[in-house]
Amino acid sequence: MSHVNYLDLLTRLQNGVVEVEFEKVDGSLRTMHCTLQHSYLPEEYRNKPTTMLTEQAPLTMNVWDVDASGWRSFRLAQVKSVK
After folding, report:
1. From CA 18, how far away is CA 53, in angstroms rounded?
2. Hey, is 64 helix, strand or coil?
């Protein structure tokens, strides 16, 4: 995927779990199941708008990794696919 639409991805993340494949800084590929849907977020983040969680947007997307149960981020320019 050569170009990721930030607003489209944000909407998808707010509505469910999304599989994102991206190139990490070290050049390796990573597939992450992530979300910004409030029901998955820790209690302290549930009442905050998810757009507040992406302070460096649209360059970097901060998301909740559902497999690791923690915050992770990736650069939009490095995204290879979104499912």
Report:
1. 17
2. strand
**Can you give the pTM of this predicted structure?**
0.83
The pair of structure tokens assigned to 35 is 């979300």
CB-count burial class (<10 Å; 0-12, 13-18, 19+) for 19: exposed
pLDDT digits (tens, 9 = 90+) for 31-79: 999 999 999 998 888 877 665 455 555 588 889 999 999 999 999 989 9
Q: Are 4 and 79 in contact (CB under 8 A)?
A: yes
Which segments of 8-68 are extended strands (E)?
A: 18-23, 29-35, 60-65
C-alpha torsion 62→66→68→71, nearest 10: 20
